[in-house]
Amino acid sequence: MADAVKGAQLVAMLVPDHLQKDVYEQEVEPNLEPGAALLFAHGLNIHFGRITPAEGHDVVMVAPKAPGHRVRELFESGAGTPGLVAIHQDASGNALQLALAYGTGIGCGRVGLLETTFGEETESDLFGEQAVLCGGATALIKAGFDTLVEAGYQPEIAYYECLNELKLIVDLIYEGGFEYMRYSISDVAEYGDLSRGPRIVDDHVKESMRKILDEIRSGAFAKELFADDEAGRPKFQELRKEAAADGKQLEEVGKGLRDLAGKEGLLGAEATHGVG
Predict the structure, then answer these.
(1) Rounded to whole angstroms, how far apart are CA atoms 34 and 229?
(2) Predicted model pTM
């Protein structure tokens, strides 16, 4: 990495967040050319002060709103991924133009680039992962699956209802928003959505979300995360073990159904027997 940094006009810090501090201090900073620009795909290390670049360097962010391999796949298909751009330091006076050029180069400009700040991107991204996209979604699926199984329903039925059909709904929302999804499902499903959904995600859930956001904004989450990493990840490993044990039945049922679908082509039937 040191050899790659030497002579570079732009250094993109794209290694995982928990490795960036050591990589920057050991490989990048000692070899960074005067006036070279630094680019990040996520603002975590800059926003919480783990990396503090010297003055004289543009420090920019281009954050595609998708995993890296998906960004590449969409680029190669002629499409693109929405992206966020932010400027932490504008030493050259052209930092924003540089960020926009990079974002265009990786295909984000084909869809749209929204200007933000390192802080806003970091805090909203962590919140989305924890409260909705990963933590919230998996916890909701698991709770629904367990509720049906504990009430005596077949695990396979619970899997189809609480996990497999979720993709159908998310795809409809992605394509046309809540309105299009509700147009596409039956009136029975829509009535259940509108009348029961707020009872599941109620004020208690929103209060928990606010507490999670407070932990993110205060830096408490980042402090906990990196302290565990520096200690060898004991808490992270324990959380992984607990999650694997807690979700063992759901995962085994899902694997069995996916394997069967691969042999028989059964999962495609969800399109004809969806939420109706």
Answers:
(1) 32
(2) 0.88
Question: What sign results for the dihedral spanned by CA atoms 249, 140, 243, 128?
Answer: positive
For the chain, the straight-line distance linking the first and the last C-alpha, in angstroms and rounded, comes to 54
Q: Specify burial of residue 110 (Cβ count, 10 A radius: 0-12, 13-18, 19+).
A: middle
Pick from 265, 67, 80, 269: which is nearest to 168 by CA?
A: 269
Sign of CA dihedral 54, 60, 66, 71: negative
DSSP state, 31? G
pLDDT tens profile 33-83: 999 999 999 999 999 999 999 999 999 999 999 888 999 999 999 999 999
Clarify whether 42 is annotated catalytic: yes
Of 42, 47, 57, 88, which one is the catalytic site residue? 42
The string of pLDDT tens digits covering residues 177-217 is 999 999 999 999 999 999 999 999 999 999 999 999 999 99
Query: Phi and psi of 84, rounded to 5°?
Result: -110, 140
Q: pLDDT by residue (tens digit) across 99-126?
A: 999 999 999 999 999 999 999 999 999 9
Residues making up the chain, counted from first to last: 276
> In whole angstroms, what is the distance from residue 27 CA to residue 229 CA?
20
User: Across 18-78, where does the E strand assignment appear?
Assistant: 37-40, 59-64
